[in-house]
Amino acid sequence: MSGSWLATQGRLPLAFMGLALAWLAVATLLLAFSPGLLALPHVHPRVVALTHAWVLGFFVSVACGAVYQLAPVALGTTLASERHGWWHFGLHAAGVPGMVFSFWFWDLKLLGHFGTAVALGILLFSVNVWRTVRQSGRTGVVAASLVLSAGWILLTVVIGLLLAANRFWGFIPLDPAALLRAHAHLGLVGFLLTLLQGVSFQLVPMFTLGEVRDWRLAKLGQWLVQGGLLVLAPALAWHLSWIALIGAGAIASGVLCSAIGLGLAMASRKKRQIDIGLRVFLFGGIALCAAAIAGVILVAPGSPWGSAPGGFGAMVYAVLALGMGLLPCIAGMLCKIVPFLTWMRAYGPHVGRGRTPSAGALTSPRLERAAFTLQGAALIPLLAGTWLLNIVLLRAGAWLLVAGVAFFLADMLGVMRHLWRPELQPAPTSKST
Amino acid sequence: MNDSMLQPAEVWEALAAIPDPEFGINIVDLGLIYSVTCNEGDVTVIMTLTTPSCPSGGWIHEGVRAALRALPGVKNSRVELVFEPPWNTGMLSAEARRALGWKEEP
Q: How far apart are CA A91 and CA A119, in angstroms?
């Protein structure tokens, strides 16, 4: 590996992480100043704006940055095109704020322009990932999850654009709310869940010195989720309750298979002490299992909590999946990824030349504990407030979340400070010198 | 061999100052260094990584090369990265096992 290649490592992923952290602040404040949005039907334009701030702004930015870092490393190759990655970053950074603004003020024409920018960025991302996997020649669960998730996110944004166009011209003879639910599941299950399922089997053993002794559960989980989504998305769009139930059941079974497989890999770990980021990530994984089961209950024909009457059941499900599942999963993983990327930029070139700290030493465990305790505490009133349509609970939950996110951002900024002000110490003096 | 010539122990000592960024344990205790040979200022280190897809592997490899270049008495240095035999936890030192939270066998 050449030094010049190493020197460019981590810049693109870090740019995406910085963007994601900015979106985390914006999305949290949006919720804090409009907590009543969680008591509205999920098709309300401002609820859609809030959802896109969280999902496209925060979750997808982290996921894309992580893929740009992880894909070459896990596949033993280089990114097919760093330049296309930077074009993606620019289009994403410019497009998502415009999309959120357009949803908030319901300007469909503007939404089309900004949505196209985001879609072009995603097209570059997907092609880049596919080319990287192809040039590596690798197969297996991790490579498959990269290929599949890149396909699903491209499909999600294309369908999202079609949905926006349909609101303008009305050419799709289907219920827009049902189409929106199908679009949401393509993104959440197809992109984020598929990616999490695959990369967890790469990252968790690596962070804990564990091993995946049997890949069959990981493969089964992956294919159950893929098959389930292929059934669920059209069934949601066409209101086919029984078929949707089969799809949701397959997805829930797939998530449980992956959870069991990951649990077995964790049991084999040699690093006994698990740091807080990984603990929170695993908590999020368990909550995602619960969300998958809640999804099965929601789509069951005749379910009293079904989303059709007013959409409120769907909102509880969304808070459970996004707030209790994805948020800890992504934030927990950020506690591992951001320190490592920062270490690579700030201290990597000094390895062997001076004393370098470990990546974990760049974080503040106290700030992380405070952040995750408050974030966890926030989700109880948020979930209850969404269920009971209680604005007091929603407001309390939103402001607890603001406090938790503030501690989290303080920790992440403290880590990234090392990029500008590394704390280097001279190399220990050898007895021979 | 006289006293002024570089000894393998000095190379091991220099390499033990390089920590793995994920675990904070030095690469010698982690068992990443398979062998060190010194022959009249020519140093060869054979090393591995915990996994071929170790994200910090490139920096650790470069760091070992830099540490060797900085050692007085080194004329030529060579660092070979191998994955056979693959690294396993049996290669951890007692110190590394303690740091990872293992309970020592009685």
A: 9
